[in-house]
Amino acid sequence: MSEESLHIDDTMVDMHRTKTYTFDNMEGWKGYRTLRPGLGIYHDIRRRLPFYWSDIKDGANYRTVAGTIRIYFVNVLPALAFVLDMDRRTDGFYGVNEGLLSSVLAALVFSVLSAQPITIVGITGLISLFNYTIYDIVKIYDGALYPQVMVWTGIWAAIFHWAMAIFNACDYMRYVTDFSSESFGMYVGIIYCIKGVEELVALFDFGTIEGYLSIIIAIMFFGTVYALVRIGNSTLWKPWVRGLLADYAFPISTLFWVGFSHIPGRLKNAQLIKLPITRAFYPTVSRSWLIDFWTLDVKWVFVCMPLGFLTMLLFYYDHNVSSITAQAKQYPLKKPGGFHWDFFLLGCTTFIAAILGLPFPNGLVPQAPVHTDSLTIYETTLKKLKTDDGEEGEIRRPHVEAVEVKEQRISHLLMCLALVGTMTGPLLVVLSTIPRALFAGVFFVVGWGSIESNDIVRKSGYLISEARFVQPSEPLTRVRKSKIILYVGWQIFGIVATVAISQTIAAIGFPILIIALIPLRWKLFPLWFSAEELAAMDALTADNEVVLASLGGAPQMPEDVKKEGGRDEKGETARETEATEERQRRMSPQR
């Protein structure tokens, strides 16, 4: 380990010892978060500020280059896809320029000022859903009011963001478990796949040939990205070769399939619909960048208050979960995070985006770990498993371990500069060569990535697996299948309800359903499941020490709370102790 790494380790130990942030076991008024405003923000800044210079110096390495290119494509392609969705559903109010400027704003603020610079912030599919649902509501009364309504929605949302950050409410994210975060991840993945299908269906309006060719390009783009990423996780070729293919899966696939759509002959004659662009650095529609929100009637200003609160609820869960997953325990992070300060900054970007008429940026959940993963150095070693076939009988398997993460701000800032360059006229012309079908493929890539890696899929697979082929070490073998079905059933119920409401004009209420899963898990599940069963199926989503330091520490799980009778001297039954150990085992890094 390098001297710099050792220095970071020593600094971290000292910071955790002298700069502890918690409300647990506090007596009197000190135990109330609302009575100590700004404490979380103060500790976030105090913990992270000593690392600011190293955040700059540590950017001088190859992983920064690979990370910049990877997150640029992972950010800009979905952002443009979501903008196309909003453009189609809001009568053209949002366009490419608004989407790019929103991404630039978020990247600039969070790369320079945030306590968690590896968390990528941009335009998500959920804010797209939110925006056009509000448009559908406003259009019932007067569609011309939509820009001002969105401004006031953003202003109220910013105020609620600031209040939540100042009064330390981000601490409650420590109560989020995999039960709700997996449900949310599956919901997001399904919504993205639905968006991809909707985009392809819309392209049939321009002709049958164009529609079917669009389907081919979308599916093949998805397949190419998926194959290249899978090669990166395989044992084909040398590690550096498959690493390059995985790092540049998006740009390779984009360049190839955009070029494919321009092959002379029948393909080019199909007249595929391309990405629409307008004048560089100007709004898509004829207006100034500053929206005259002060002209809106007072009644509408207060109508926007609940809309702003729902926006804040969405960002409270979406952004914070994205930050948690970007700093999951499988990544050997050394530098501390800061949820309160970053949520305050998110309120600032929401306010600025609102008055400029931009989509509100927030954390990108499916793409959240991509930046961290691209900055991570992995080592692949050979693991030999002996068999019963004699001395030569063995099974060889690769063992991949994350040994270091290049934590820095430079890749995020370079992505910001690349986005600014994309807003210029020449590069907008380049963007206009991309067929819209490719963005449907982007929806499939992002959506399927969230579905395939979801633990709901793993649990469902276990339920239908033949028993003799299940590994004895599988934690689920200690849980009755009826209990697994009950657990997964509640997750599926939450997903179905949220997806269903998202297809109606009541879609703006879906954040309430997502948030409601948290108290359901904490209040009712301990009555239905034992501590051992929950330890095998669930765990805290925030499982990294550097993350929990900003959230006030790990909470005590309700199923582990002391009960009457049968205690050892520490106040735990043997079954509770075993459950706690199992939960800690599940939270350990695995790859």
From TrEMBL:
It is found in: Membrane. The chain crosses the membrane at residues 62-84, 105-130, 150-172, 184-206, 212-229, 241-260, 298-317, 338-360, 485-518. One of its GO terms (cellular component) is plasma membrane. It is a multi-pass membrane protein. Residues 559-585 have a biased composition (Basic and acidic residues). Its main location: membrane. GO terms for biological process: borate transport; monoatomic anion transport; monoatomic ion homeostasis. Residues 551-591 are annotated as: Disordered. GO terms for molecular function: solute:inorganic anion antiporter activity. The keyword Lipid biosynthesis does not apply. Residues 39-204, 213-540 form the Bicarbonate transporter-like transmembrane domain. Keywords: Membrane, Transmembrane, Transmembrane helix. PANTHER family: ANION EXCHANGE PROTEIN, ANION TRANSPORTER (EUROFUNG). This is Bicarbonate transporter-like transmembrane domain-containing protein. It comes from Cryomyces minteri.
